[in-house]
Amino acid sequence: MKLIDGKAIAAQIKQEIALEVSQIKAAGGKTPHLAAVLVGHDGGSETYVANKVRSCEEVGFKSTLIRYEEDVTEAELLACVNRLNNDADIDGFIVQLPLPKHISEDKITEAIDYRKDVDGFHPVNVGRMSLGMPCFLSATPAGIVELLKRYKIETQGKHCVVLGRSNIVGKPVSMLMMQKGYPGDCTVTVCHSRTKNIKEICLQADIIIAALGVPEFLKGDMVKEGAVVIDVGTTRVPNSNTKSGFKLTGDVKFDEVAPKCAYITPVPGGVGPMTIVSLLRNTLLAGKKAIYS
To answer: Tens digits of per-residue pLDDT, 168-191?
Structure first.
C-alpha cells in the first residue's frame, strides 16, 4: 500500500506556480489577483477561505476577501458579482458555497463571468469540460486527476467507480475519468444514494473515488485487492480528544480499506490540499489569459 501524499504534491505545485509568478513579475507582467466572497460564518467555509488567502500569499498572488453577513440579499450579492466581473484587476474570483437558503446558488453561479470562474462551476466551463475543450476545471476533480498523474497511476481501460453525483465532484470527475487520453480512458460507473448493489459494483472497481459525504461509508469488504482509492470526504465528526472538538473524517474506513489498496489518499492531507492548488492554477491561467483571451 502506498499513501498518496496530497500535501507534498500541493507544495510542489505551489513552488512551480510561485516560480512562474516571479518570472511574470520580473518581466513586468501583471500579478495574478484572486478574490473570494464569503457569506456568513460557516466553520468549514471560514477555514477553506483562510487557506486560500494564505496560499495566495505563498505563491505571490494578490488576494481580496469580501465578507457579507448571513442576511445579505440576493440583489446585493449579485451586485458584488457584477462589480468583480467588471474589475480589470481581478483575474478570477469565487463565491464560497454553500450560500444561505434565501439566495439561489444557480443564479449567483450563472452571474459570474465564465472567464473569471476559477471554481469551474459556470455552465460554460462545465459544458466545455464535458466536450474536452479548454476550460477552467472544477478544483477538486482537477486535483484528483493531477494526483493520479503525478503518481503515474495507470487509468487506461480501468474500471473507475465514482461514489456520489454532486455537481462539484461526482459528475465532473466521472467525465474527466472517461475523457480520451491520460489520466482518463476509464470505464466509469457512477453510484449514488439510489444505486442498488453498491458493494458488488465497488468490488469490481480498479479505482474508487469516494465523494458521498458519508463518513466511513466505504468499508474493507467493499474493495478488491490492489485497488486505488481516492477519498474526497471531509465531514466534521465530533471528537472530544481534539482541541477543535471535531475530527475530519473521510468517506473511507481507512484502517480497513488501506491494507487492500495499491494506493490510497488519507484524510486530511490527500485531496484537500490539491483543491486549493487547482484554484491557484486556474487563477494563474486566468491572469495569463491562457484559456479565454
So the answer is: 999 999 999 999 999 999 999 999
Task: Express each pLDDT in 195-206 by its tens digit.
Answer: 999 999 999 999
Residue 13: helix, strand or coil by DSSP?
helix
pLDDT (tens digit per residue) in 229-246: 999 998 888 877 777 777
Do 43 and 163 sit in the same domain of this protein? no
Domain with 147 in it: what CATH number? Answer: 3.40.50.720
- CA dist list (Å): 111 to 75, 106, 121: 11, 8, 11
pTM of structure: 0.93
Distance CA 117, CA 115 (A): 6
> Does residue 12 have an active-site annotation?
no
Among candidate residues 5, 14, 91, 96, the one labeled active-site is: 96
Q: Hey, what's the torsion of the CAs at 82, 114, 111, 69, to 10 degrees?
A: -70
Q: Does 156 participate in catalysis according to the annotation?
A: no
Whether 238 is in a domain gets the answer yes
Instruction: Give CA–CA dist 68/193, Å, rounded.
Output: 34
The model's pLDDT over 41-88, given as tens digits with 9 standing for 90+, comes to 887 788 888 888 899 999 999 999 999 999 999 999 999 999 999 999
Cα–Cα separations (whole angstroms), residue 75 to 81, 92, 214: 10, 21, 34
Catalytic residue among 52, 116, 171, 253: 52
Q: Is 210 exposed, middle or buried (0-12, 13-18, 19+ CB in 10 A)?
A: buried
Catalytic member of 5, 91, 117, 119: 119
CATH number of the domain that residue 38 is part of: 3.40.50.10860
Residues 104 and 60 in one domain: yes
Catalytic-residue membership of 119: yes
